Amino acid sequence: MRPFGEPSLDVRDVQGNILRGYGFAHAAYVWLHVADEAAGRAWVKAIIPRVTTAEPWHGDKPETTLNVAVTYAGLEALGVSQGLLDDMPEEFSAGMAARADDLRDAGEDRPEHWDAGFGTGEASILVTVSAQNERALDPAVDELTGEVDGKKISVLHVERAALLDGSREHFGFSDGFAQPAVAGDGNVAKPGDGSPEADGRWDESPLGEFILGYEDEDQQVPLAPRGPLGRNATFMVYRKLRQDVAAFRRALRERAAKLGLDDEELAAKVMGRWRDGTPVALAQGPDGHEQYLRPERINDFRYEDDPEGMRCPLGAHVRRVNPRDALGWHSTRSRRHRMIRRGMPYGPPAPDGDADDGEDRGLVFIAFCSSIRRQFEIVQAQWCADGNIFGLGEDKDWVLLADDRPHAKMTIQGHPPKFVVGQPRMVSVRAGEYLLVPSIAGLRELSR
Amino acid sequence: MSDRNGQASALNIFTPIRPGEEEALHAFLAALPRGAGSPLARSSPTHFARWVIIDRLPTECIKKPDRLRRTQLLFTSSFDGDKRSYLEDLVDVLTEEIPEIWGRCEGCPAGPAELVDWLLDHSVKSSFFVAAYNQSTVYDVRNALAAREQTLAFALRAQDMDAEQRLHAFREAFP
Amino acid sequence: MSSLSPQERRALIGEAEKANVSGRATALTAISTLRPWGVALNRAFFFLSPYAPFLHTKLKKLSFIHFARWVIVDSLRGEDFKHTHQFFESNFNGTSSQYIDAFSYVVPRELGATFGVSYGWPGPVPAAPLKSFITRHEYTASHFYCAYPQATTTMILSSLEVKKRLADLRVRARDMDAAEFDEAWNEFLTEVQHHL
After folding, report:
1. Helix/strand/coil for C75
2. How confident is the model at residue A2 (pLDDT cuts 50, 70, 90)?
């Protein structure tokens, strides 16, 4: 956990969990549909005192936290003026479902296959409740669902999530510890969290890359509505990703032996980190990881001395989603595409072996950024669903995306290279929405 | 001033559209099939081409900005070989569409030979032309793309083979 | 809305994005008006450019442009211009916005050299006013054609490389035995792995 400091913005106005994660082990995502404007506004007014802000906790942590985000459809349902709605960035107004082509979502990932109620305009408000203990979560969720009448405001869906042992996600990889270093967020930046620059420097991202109303990398204030809705707020990407653990294990096993690797090595190569989080860029084999398993070391690496991908494959997942200095000119081409991620696994841990127990499990992927298009969509569409920018042609992220082209593969660069042949589906998108996380003043604006 | 880069050539042709016919011309162009179904696909030396309707010139920060007397139809192309042969072929493969495109422009002549001259007469030389693969024709590009696919397909198959099998398979695939 | 030209209206309605795209190829067409003292500067810059290092290193490394051109237009048949205009077109891969970002962050000086003498030029950085400048000077193609819409510039360059080396290997393989070919094949794969 990062040591506390005071962020340089009004912490009582920004919602919590954005600049600093709560670090709680359990969460519930309560999706509401607002059918009546007046009821919606009254609901927002009533919830404001319970919203957890970014104020640092001194002493005891709260039992639960509560945060509120609103979709574009939700803003419309709450009667936000057309002028303010027109100020919203295009991709946010369209919603994730309408952006399927822009995201290069294909096959089962497309909105027509999503869980009911998502991508249809029904989702208005997301209330995220998190708790240190599971027992504290249910009463908080019950309180929320009990407060709505089912007609003017109804509960669309409740998604429960919980950290797995060792903060792993379902494919067994340690996750969530690598976050962008943000100037003025009150956290002490660890090496590797920032954007790599000359002389071994790591630059922090300006606040405006993640919080609306502040200057971004271009010293411009990002596109946002006027007034309280566009300040101390952020955009949120919610994307429920189902993970087929059995398929993942099987896919690795079928290929590893043929390539002269064991499953762990192959898993590390496709991911770009070993399951314990050690970067493949730093460790080529399964031994000697202890030295890297400290917060100051685990994220401290660059790709500039590995331009051919001989250590960490060019198409490895972590290299795709955060290329660091791999795109040339230090972090010039990557520094504007960072995301703060606060997602959590859902579903029970998978049993050993590769029999499919039929349980639904995966990751509720959540990202915060001030430009959904630049920070999420480009990474998803151009860096994961495509490989051209890395010189990988049409190759897609092997872990995240299925590829049914006849010669789909992932290259593990080397002397000679090895090809991971065939790219079955192991992850599918089940639901997705784009949301605005308003400031407290913004919430007040929505309740007027 | 150059319309050539290696074996690649550039053409930029501005022709004035007959007043009142601008929307119809745009609608016709916008409705044309795209990709392999585009009429321009019949022109085998064409790498990239576009028709753009230029209905205004910049005005901001200019004290007395220029105004167009006529909305212009701009046709640009990046293609292989020399301009005249290119246009002769283009005019031929676009016989059906031309009346709806250049036929809507003022002074467009009837016969193909005259049309080629007229188009060349309305062309403006490029000041600088950049071409990433300036030695390759459209055919070369497509051929190379296919070679890459074939090589990849073979490489994936060959990975599981022993040395004997691989040599045999290679000779079969690439005689 | 009535003061906008049909082009501007189309851009606003969002027809722009789809019409300017064919598969993975994107078209950008822009016209700017050059300040009088800038015309000669631009002509000089273009004349000298083939000898300029940036083309051979940075632009190559960016590698998303298929073909691009600058055209200085001081007259058109039937028109009477007081100013000199510059028409720019590019055929490239990726979104317009990524394209402008890349140029704005990687080669701002060179961008300034070719567009800097245009009226209204905001400077190459930051990217936002630059994008706005381009958008205001941009035209949507009514029809955009690409002969190989699924291929990116990088893929094409890679393909040309693979083809060359494959042709070479083909010839050499005729006289090899299995062991020799095994070595040659691994060497070949090692050489072309970044192109496959």
Report:
1. coil
2. very low
Confidence label for A1 from pLDDT (cuts 50, 70 and 90): very low
Who among A219, A220, A328 is closest to C61 (CB)? A328
Categorise residue A313: left if φ over 0, alpha if ψ from -120 to 50, beta otherwise: beta
Q: What is the pLDDT of residues C41-78, one digit of tens each?
A: 888 888 888 777 666 677 777 888 999 999 999 999 99
What are A158-173's pLDDT values in tens digits? 999 999 999 999 999 9
Q: Measured between CA atoms, how close is A287 to chain B, in angstroms?
A: 28
Q: How far is C178 from chain A (nearest CA, A)?
A: 17
Q: Which of C3, C24, C31, C69 to mutate to test the interface with B (most CBs of B within 10 A)?
A: C69
Residue A5: pLDDT band with limits 50, 70, 90: low
The pair of three-digit structure tokens given for residue A320, joined into one six-digit string: 């795709």
* Chain A residues with CB-CB distance to B156 below 8 A: 407, 409, 419, 421
Beta strands in C51-129 (DSSP E): 65-73, 84-93
The answer to whether A377 and A102 are in contact (CB under 8 A) is yes
Residue A224 Cα, gap to closest chain C Cα (Å): 14
Test mutation, B152, B154, B161, chain A, max A CBs within 10 A: B152
Instruction: Tell me the chain C residues in contact with residue B124 when contact means C-beta distances shorter than 8 Å.
Output: 71, 73, 76, 87
pLDDT bracket for residue C144 (50, 70, 90): very high
Pick from B156, B161, B162, B166 the residue to mutate for testing the A interface (most A CBs within 10 Å).
Answer: B156
pLDDT for C12: 62
CB contact under 8 A, B148 and C142: no
Does residue C186 sit at the A interface (CB-CB below 8 Å)?
yes
Give the integer Cα–Cα distance in Å for A326 and A61: 40
What's the pLDDT tens digit per position in A280-308? 999 999 999 999 999 999 999 999 999 99
Considering the entire predicted model, what is its pTM?
A: 0.94
CA-based nearest residue in chain A for residue B158: A419
Q: Which of B26-35, B84-93, C14-23 has the lowest mean pLDDT?
A: C14-23
Residues of chain A with Cβ-Cβ distance to C158 below 8 Å are: 391, 393
Would you state the pLDDT for residue C109?
Answer: 78
Rounded to an integer, what distance in angstroms lies between the CA atom of residue C70 and that of residue B2? 10
The pLDDT of residue A294: 94
Note if the bond before C124 is cis, omega within 30 degrees: no
Asked if the C-beta of B156 comes within 8 angstroms of chain A's C-beta atoms, the answer is yes
Residues in chain A closer than 8 A to B155 (CB atoms): 419
Q: What is the distance between the alpha carbons of residues B18 and A348, in angstroms, rounded to a whole number?
A: 70
Task: Compute φ and ψ for A245, nearest 5 degrees.
Answer: -65, -40
The pLDDT of B78-100, averaged and rounded, is 97
Cβ contact, residue pair A308, C194, below 8 Å: yes
pLDDT score, position A359: 96
Q: Which two tokens stand for residue A447?
A: 């309740």
